[in-house]
Design brief:
CATH class: Alpha Beta
Mean pLDDT: 94
Strand order of the largest sheet: 3-2-1-4-5-6-11
CATH superfamily: NAD(P)-binding Rossmann-like Domain
CATH architecture: 3-Layer(aba) Sandwich
Number of strands: 13
Radius of gyration: 19 Å
Distance between the termini: 26 Å
Structural class: alpha/beta
Helix content: 40-55%
Shape: globular
Order of helices and strands: EHEHEHEHHEHEEHEEEHEEHEHH
Low-confidence stretches: none
Length: 331
């Protein structure tokens, strides 16, 4: 079986590609290496993935391709002929979408449409599994978030584009009989983490003696999910033969953590005593996220195993090593 992973040099894409290689899948990866955050981190992930593939059961082919380049994307589909497409390529970031809206229109809407069209016209139409986001729930006050909840009031353009992806995928499933499965990710973290995300920003401030910027005065709740658990869920969805033609699943830890508890756990793992700068809520942010995973559990047996007290020290060790050396390691 062959899987095409878009955004393979991203945080989740890198970990997913490693796992599929380990399981004997042939992996084709594409990434455009955009400079939204440190391109060196993406290149280091790519280098490590290539080294891992040399001893893995599956084969690996990598290409610098942007999903917004329809002709190049068609060429990849024609050459690789994937059985499954895992679409993780997107412009991330809630706050960035407020200041750079057209980047989201280009990548998350036009780029995703290109993926749908390439799947639709493939000689053997692949199964499409794509990244949505817990952001689609907006300011939902009902906890935990369930897939049946209304998601008609996004509070950022990023969230709106992810909701649009779900609707676009449904339309293609309905019109063309394509299988499309969306996964709403909840605050994923772990080694090889993105530098623009909260734990990385906190770790950087702690290790350099700067105050931590803590929004909404620390009164926030997040469903932090370790990346290995996320990848386990992705694999279960990809390999399942019993899912419907179209569906949406939450994929999280099914536990909402207090932000101040997360900061305390990270500080303990790094061995520092942080200074906190309390700030008001930022535009586009939400007070809480909390995933119901009952639907995914029933469909695939998904069961996250990693608590923040286990996962955050793993991230902290990687952060110290990588930021200290700036080079990829085997971890």
């Amino acid at each position: 079986m062959k899987i095409l992973i878009t955004g393979y040099a991203g945080f989740i894409g890198f970990h997913a590609a490693k796992e599929f290689l380990r399981r004997g899948w042939d992996v084709a990866g594409i990434d455009n290496f955009c400079d939204y955050y440190d391109v060196k981190l993406k290149r280091d992930r790519s280098e490590l993935l290539s080294r891992f593939a040399a001893e893995a059961r599956g084969s690996l082919s990598l290409s610098d391709v942007d999903i917004c380049d329809l002709d190049a994307l068609r060429g990849i589909f024609g050459r690789e002929k994937p059985d499954v497409v895992l679409n993780l390529a997107a412009q991330p970031g809630v706050r960035y979408s407020i200041t750079h809206p057209f980047v989201y229109q280009k990548t998350n809407l036009e780029g995703f449409l290109n993926i749908l069209e390439c799947c639709r016209h493939a000689q053997n139409v692949p199964k499409l599994v794509f990244a949505s986001s817990s952001s689609v729930y907006g300011g939902n006050k009902k906890m935990p978030f369930e897939e049946s909840d209304k998601v008609d009031t996004p509070v950022s353009l990023y969230a709106a584009t992810k909701k649009a992806n779900e609707l676009m995928a449904y339309t293609y499933s309905h019109l063309y009989g394509m299988q499309t499965i969306g996964l709403r990710f909840f605050t994923v973290y772990g080694p090889w983490y993105r530098p623009d995300m909260a734990l990385s920003l906190f770790a950087d401030a702690m290790l350099h003696g700067r105050p931590l910027k803590v929004f909404n005065n620390g009164d926030m709740l997040r469903d932090f999910t370790f990346v290995d658990d996320i990848v386990d869920g992705i694999v279960r969805v990809v390999e399942s033969r019993s899912l419907p033609l179209y569906d949406i699943f939450n994929i999280g830890n099914h536990k909402s953590e207090k932000l101040l508890d997360v900061i305390e756990t990270l500080a303990g793992a790094l061995g520092v005593k942080p200074e906190l700068e309390m700030l008001p809520m930022q535009p586009g942010d939400v007070y809480a996220t909390y995933a119901s995973i009952d639907k995914l559990r029933a469909a695939t047996g998904y069961e996250p195993k990693t608590s923040i007290r286990e996962g955050i020290p793993v991230f902290a060790r990687w952060y110290r090593e990588y930021r200290g050396s700036g080079a990829p390691s085997a971890n």
